[in-house]
Prior knowledge:
Layout: H1 3-9, E1 21-28, E2 36-37, H2 39-52, E3 58-66, E4 69-78, E5 81-91, E6 97-105, H3 107-122, H4 135-148
Parallel strand pairs: 1-6
Antiparallel strand pairs: 1-2, 3-4, 4-5, 5-6
Helix pairs in contact: 2-3
Amino acid sequence: xxxxxxxxxxxxxxxxxxxxxxxxxxxxxxxxxxxxxxxxxxxxxxxxxxxxxxxxxxxxxxxxxxxxxxxxxxxxxxxxxxxxxxxxxxxxxxxxxxxxxxxxxxxxxxxxxxxxxxxxxxxxxxxxxxxxxxxxxxxxxxxxxxxxxxxxxxxxxxxxxxxxxxxxxxxxxxxxxxxxxxxxxxxxxx
Length: 190
C-alpha cells in the first residue's frame, strides 16, 4: 500500500501527512490554476480535500506502474453525489512523494468539490468541513487533540491502570465502575 494512501485511510488528515512528502513536492490538479509546490502547501491541500468529501470511502484500485510510480483509483461522495479520482503518485528514491497528479469526475461533483476547497483556502482554513457551521468547534477539537498528544505514548500506564500488590485493581480507580466490584486476580507472567 502506498504510504500516502495508508496515511489517508488512517484517520483525519493532519500536518504529519507532510512527512510522506518531499520538501519540494508538486501537486497537479484540475481544481487549481497552477500546480502547488512545497511540502506545507501540498499537505494543507491534501488535508482540505479529505475533509471536503464525505469521508475517505474506498480506494478501489492501487497499481504499481513501475518502481516509483503508483496509480490509485478512489470512489466516494461529496454532498451525497458520486465523486471519483484517478491519481498518479511519483516517489523519489527515498520513498517520499515527489509529484501527485490527480483527475476527478463527474463534472457536477467536481464543481461542488472545487467550490468547497476554494472557500476553505480563501478563509485560510487548514481543514475544510463544509457541514460544520462553527469553525471554532474545529479549533476546540484541534486544541484538545494537541493537549492529548504528549500523553498518548507514555512508557508507563496511567495510575488508574496500575495493579495493586495482589494483582487486583479496585473499582474506585475506574471512573464509572460498579462500586465494590474488582477485577479478578490473574496470574502474572514470569
